[in-house]
Design a protein that fits this description.
CATH superfamily: Thiamin diphosphate (ThDP)-binding fold, Pyr/PP domains
Number of domains: 1
Number of helices: 11
Strand order of the largest sheet: 1-2-3-7-6
CATH topology: Rossmann fold
Distance between the termini: 71 Å
Largest sheet: 5 strands, parallel
CATH architecture: 3-Layer(aba) Sandwich
Radius of gyration: 20 Å
Helix content: 25-40%
Structural class: alpha/beta
Bound molecules: thiamine diphosphate, magnesium ion
Shape: globular
Length: about 375
């Protein structure tokens, strides 16, 4: 274990008991990343570290009472967002969830404007009026984090329908959780995506819990199999293996761009923190210590960095400097967010609708 590994898994008990994987058919971890150029591999590592440091800072700010609103952290799940978005083009699109900071950072959102949004300030992505669950930037293909569980699923399916209608070869990825996979809209959207052969990739992040209930108490069968009756291929991947996730998404994007229709990917992972920050005040203890220790041992960033070191595309000094740069970037983002003013109360009812070129929204008395 390197000094960096130690830092990345600092709360892991020394003698953590390893429990079996709570899945029946996991992809073997440790898929080789060697097929991508070294710069891209280091960029994937950088993006995972950026998400990790961003989320850790939010946890701290929340504890200090400096962060308004609800925050659902993505710590431990970084390999899914980065594996997915590293397989996409800049002009592809994503829809996200209530646990969406990692998705949008991986798709290119700037941490300064995100932090300003989280502080409720005008320099944020929604002028400080949206917060954590409304981070949108169409120019980056980010169609929004979303407070409605399953809400991004039909939006992303519609985005793919638009591309198909316009003859564009873009792909849309829909991120959603294991809990959202039980929403009716998931099945409705898969049906339309299948019948119209839409270029959409449904990425289910199965992190083992829906709020405070274990997935197996709520969710029948394997999520990856849920598209089979509609002819949608599904795979289950190790969501803590960034290379495995990227490979699965690359084959789904090939399929989508070739006009062969949708795919479903179930990424098995684990959230390190509570459902939302501050849940300790009411949620009690609902996750076994051994389970948490097991998943912390399967920490995704150190595992990938070790692979890169073995492949000779990273050394400890480079890893340290990437980490230091990303930590400074988060310091700067916090300063930027805090320095930005609050929006003027006068503009509370502005920017509620996107400007429309086809509809006149003016109301005559
Ligand atoms: C339509 C809807 N129902 C219920 C909620 C309350 N809620 C917020 S997050 C959540 C659980 C989502 O679980 P999952 O999809 O597994 O995502 P995770 O939180 O594990 O990332 C629920 C029920 C909501 N926001 N929207
Ligand atoms: Mg979940």
């Amino acid at each position: 274990m390197t000094s960096k590994d130690k830092q990345l898994s600092d709360t892991l008990p020394a003698e953590a008991e390893v429990v079996p994987e709570p899945v029946s058919d996991p992809t073997e971890p440790g898929v080789s990343a060697a097929s991508w150029p070294p710069d891209e591999q280091r960029h994937m590592l950088r993006m995972m570290i950026r998400i990790r440091r961003f989320e850790e800072r939010l946890a701290l700010l929340f504890k200090r009472g400096e962060l308004p609103g609800f925050v659902h952290l993505y710590l431990g799940e970084e390999a899914v967002a980065v594996g997915v978005c590293s397989a996409l083009r800049a002009d592809d699109r994503i829809t996200s969830t209530h646990r969406g900071h990692g998705h949008v950072i991986a798709k290119g959102a700037g941490v300064e404007r995100m932090m300003a949004e989280l502080f409720g300030r005008v320099d944020g992505y929604c002028r400080g009026k949206g917060g954590s669950m409304h981070i949108v930037d169409f120019s980056l293909g980010i169609m929004g984090t979303n407070g409605i569980v399953g809400g991004g699923i039909p939006i992303g399916t519609g985005s793919a329908w638009g591309d198909k209608q316009l003859g564009r070869d873009n792909v849309t990825v829909v991120f959603f959780g294991d809990g959202a996979s039980n929403q009716g809209v998931f099945f409705e959207s898969m049906n339309l995506a299948a019948i119209w052969e839409l270029p959409v990739i449904f990425v289910c992040e199965n992190n083992g819990y829906t709020e405070w209930t274990a997935t197996e108490k709520l969710t029948a069968g394997h999520i990856a199999d849920r598209g089979i009756p509609m002819g949608i291929p599904g795979v289950q991947v190790d969501g803590n293996d960034v290379a495995a996730v990227r490979l699965a998404v690359e084959s789904a994007t090939d399929r989508a761009r070739a006009g062969e229709g949708p795919s479903l990917i179930e990424a098995r992972t684990y959230r390190w923190h509570g459902h939302n920050e501050g849940e300790e005040a009411f949620a009690g203890s609902y996750r076994p210590d051994e389970e948490q220790a097991h998943w912390r041992q399967r920490e995704p960033i150190g595992a990938f960095a070790r692979q890169l070191m073995q492949a000779g595309v990273l050394d400890q000094a480079r890893w340290d400097s990437i980490d230091a740069e990303e930590t400074v970037a988060i310091d700067n983002a916090v300063a930027f967010g805090k320095a930005s003013p609050f929006p003027d109360p006068e503009e509370a009812l502005e920017h509620l609708f996107a400007p429309s070129t086809t509809t006149d929204r003016s109301v005559s008395a």
